[in-house]
């Protein structure tokens, strides 16, 4: 009882509403809205600032507009309202300052690990020797030393994702945009990718926007977790995670935080413009809990007394 209370109190101090920060944001999202085919309101009035060196997770159930927002940041979707700027310049399309990573590593199957990296670096006009050296450094960084000559089909799913991460980092974008990149990996491989990404981020402090529907993944990785809800897609809360790194998904405070976010999402389910789609939808997962526990599904009653 006392332990639970202590957990709750510490989670309350470690997960707080984000404060407005001084200085120009690296990425500024202002009143962004997007409607598909004049009928699906994927985003409404979204305001987010991402500062240099921040790791921001966009968290929410399927269909709440996370990917639409990420693609708008990438310049692949032109929002129907509002605007987005990067380093003070309007985002009007894709550019080399942003690299987007998907669940699929999207490697060239006929090229080796080294060649996959060198190819994109040469495409960015790096001299051959520089591209080779940079590729070698980033292959080492993701723990694939010794696999430079391997073809993608000779690697496991986790190793292929490491190659995709090495390639994205080697391009040195101003912002790395990640769309559920570890969603297709098994739990153990995903945990090792979380460790790797945390380790790399602690060293490089790259600006990252990471989409997920997994609450613990967001809390393990994010400096901030922007909690979104659907129908229409909107920001519910922008939270700062004050847990020290590296983070453990089974840390008691983190588990308590995930309960609070799940409760918040449960309450938001009851406040929507339109009914949920027929046939249900992907739930927000709170990994590490027993089956059925820790998930938000359509219309679930909100847990009591877990408000932020
Ligand atoms: N090209 C499109 N045309 C029409 N509607 C779309 C299109 N892309 C997305 N939508 C709709 O916009 C809404 C937001 O979709 P989006 O993919 O951004 O959500 P999401 O939160 O990323 O979901 P998921 O986690 O399942 O990827 C959904 O209702 C979706 O059906």
From TrEMBL:
Residues 27-255 form the ABC transporter domain. InterPro entries: AAA+_ATPase, ABC_transporter-like_ATP-bd, ABC_transporter-like_CS, ABC_transporter_ATP-bind, P-loop_NTPase. SUPFAM superfamilies: P-loop containing nucleoside triphosphate hydrolases (SSF52540). The keyword ATP-binding applies. GO terms for molecular function: ATP binding; ATP hydrolysis activity. SMART domains: AAA. Keywords: ATP-binding, Nucleotide-binding, Transport. Residues 271-308 are annotated as: Disordered. Pfam families: ABC_tran. This is ABC transporter domain-containing protein.
């Amino acid at each position: 009882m006392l332990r639970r209370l202590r957990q709750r109190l510490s989670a309350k101090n470690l997960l707080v509403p984000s404060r407005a920060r001084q200085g120009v944001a690296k990425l500024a999202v202002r009143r962004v809205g997007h409607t598909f085919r004049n009928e699906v309101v994927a985003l409404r009035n979204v305001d987010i600032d991402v500062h240099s060196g921040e790791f921001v997770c966009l968290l929410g159930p399927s269909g709440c507009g996370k990917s639409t927002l990420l693609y708008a940041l990438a310049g692949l979707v032109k929002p129907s309202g509002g605007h987005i700027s990067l380093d003070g310049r309007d985002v009007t399309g894709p550019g080399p300052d942003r690299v987007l990573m998907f669940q699929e590593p999207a490697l060239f199957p006929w090229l080796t690990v080294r060649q996959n990296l060198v190819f994109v670096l040469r495409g960015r006009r790096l001299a051959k020797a520089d591209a080779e050296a940079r590729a070698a450094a980033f292959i080492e960084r993701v723990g694939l030393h010794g696999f430079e000559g391997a073809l993608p089909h000779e690697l496991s799913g986790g190793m292929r994702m490491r190659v995709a991460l090495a390639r994205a980092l080697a391009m040195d974008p101003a912002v790395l945009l990640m769309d559920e990149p570890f969603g297709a990996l098994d739990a153990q491989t995903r945990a090792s990718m979380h460790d790797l990404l945390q380790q790399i981020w602690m060293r490089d402090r790259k600006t990252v926007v990471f989409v997920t529907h997994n609450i613990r993944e967001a809390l393990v990785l994010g400096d901030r977790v922007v909690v979104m809800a659907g129908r229409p897609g909107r920001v519910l809360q922008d939270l700062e995670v004050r847990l020290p790194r590296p983070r453990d998904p089974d840390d008691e405070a983190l588990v308590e935080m995930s309960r609070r976010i799940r409760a918040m999402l449960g309450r938001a389910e009851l406040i929507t413009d339109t009914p949920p789609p027929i046939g249900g939808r992907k739930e927000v997962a709170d990994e590490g809990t027993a089956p059925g526990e820790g998930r938000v599904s359509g219309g679930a009653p909100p847990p009591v007394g877990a408000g932020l």
